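Researcher: We are triaging several targets before committing to wet-lab work. For this one, the compound of interest is S-adenosylmethionine. I'm pasting the protein sequence and the ligand SMILES. What I need is the predicted three-dimensional arrangement of the protein with the ligand bound, expressed as structure tokens, so it can go straight into our comparison scripts without reformatting.
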Amino acid sequence: MQFKYLPSFVKRRGRITKHQESNVKQLSAYEVKDGEDFTALSKEFSKVFIEIGFGDGENIISMALNNPDSLFIGSEVYLSGIGSLIGKILEKDIQNIRIHNGDVRELLDGIKIPVLDGILIICPDPWPKARHHKRRLIKKEFLELVASKLKKKSSLYIATDWEDYAENIDEAVANTDKLLVSRSELFSNLPITRFQARAMKEGRKIHKFNLYKA
Ligand SMILES: C[S@@+](CC[C@H](N)C(=O)[O-])C[C@H]1O[C@@H](n2cnc3c(N)ncnc32)[C@H](O)[C@@H]1O
């Protein structure tokens, strides 16, 4: 079978706890499958944001709790992360998070008009080996796909802990006129995610990109 996009993730089952597994069974109550689901939902909230690759969900939970009138859609393929996020949604009775279980590029393709108020990507998979660089999510085409779904002046925030990925992102931004560098941050006081904490412990700098739709 031919995929439209080269996977930017390793789809692994990984270690999943019984608790996460039982939470995943409730995914349908929170699921955004495609552009059609997205459009129906987005009308219920004043603003809509997507976090791509939410991992264990620390960041999306914090944003959702701090901005109860906005909808936060988390896109992720990592089942134990989805299970953890559903667990936290239930525990804190959060009403403004929905989950896309799949490649975010397919969800974005299904969104037909620029309706998003912001997109966040924290520590995209680094694919450190040169022969795997083609799998890196953030490249010019991806930035332009994202820009086509953002409202004018709305933001894209990216943080990477890999120096050479940051250089690639700089080049991709320089090669498109659809996104410009912003002086303001999309959200301030975001929590440190698991991958950021690991990078900091290993002495890697976090490179941040605040961009907005031209
Ligand atoms: C390195 S982890 C970072 C997780 C989290 N943001 C953090 O900082 O701890 C990157 C995550 O992005 C997810 N991911 C990669 N490509 C994706 C895509 N195209 N659509 C949705 N999620 C994706 C992966 O499954 C993985 O969990």
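Researcher: Any quick observations?
Model: The longest helix spans residues 79-92.
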